[in-house]
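A reminder from the course coordinator: this example appears on the midterm review sheet, so study it carefully.

Given structure:
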């Protein structure tokens, strides 16, 4: 289980289309048992992020067909909710738009 409160500091990650495709495969495999996915931050450190299949599929859609090797920058931040262990994962897309994923941390476990 994740420590309650802020799960991670805001960070940006440069990801290739192939990396996001692999993340999509991972979350689909664990769709019935959500997992924390390791996303590299700017320094290359791995950050555990609670991502659902629909969210990573939206990230994958940010890459045009055939752009598996293209790198795009995504921003990740956590907004704590009113209850401990609940909040919102906010992902900033390369085009500046944001996706907000309501999250109950107790549903996620490490891969």
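Designed residues:
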């Amino acid at each position: 289980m994740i420590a309650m409160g802020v799960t991670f500091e805001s960070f940006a990650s440069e990801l290739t289309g192939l990396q996001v495709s692999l993340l999509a495969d991972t979350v689909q495999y664990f769709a019935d048992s959500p997992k924390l996915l390791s996303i590299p931050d700017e320094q290359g450190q791995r950050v555990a992020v609670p991502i659902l299949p629909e969210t990573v599929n939206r990230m994958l859609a940010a890459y045009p067909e055939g752009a598996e090797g293209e790198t795009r920058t995504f921003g990740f931040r956590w907004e704590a909710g009113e209850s401990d262990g609940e909040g919102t994962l906010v992902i900033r897309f390369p085009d500046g738009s944001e996706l907000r994923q309501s999250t109950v941390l107790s549903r996620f476990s490490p891969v």
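Residues 56 and 109 are 17 Å apart (CA to CA). Confidence is low (pLDDT under 50) at residues 1-6.
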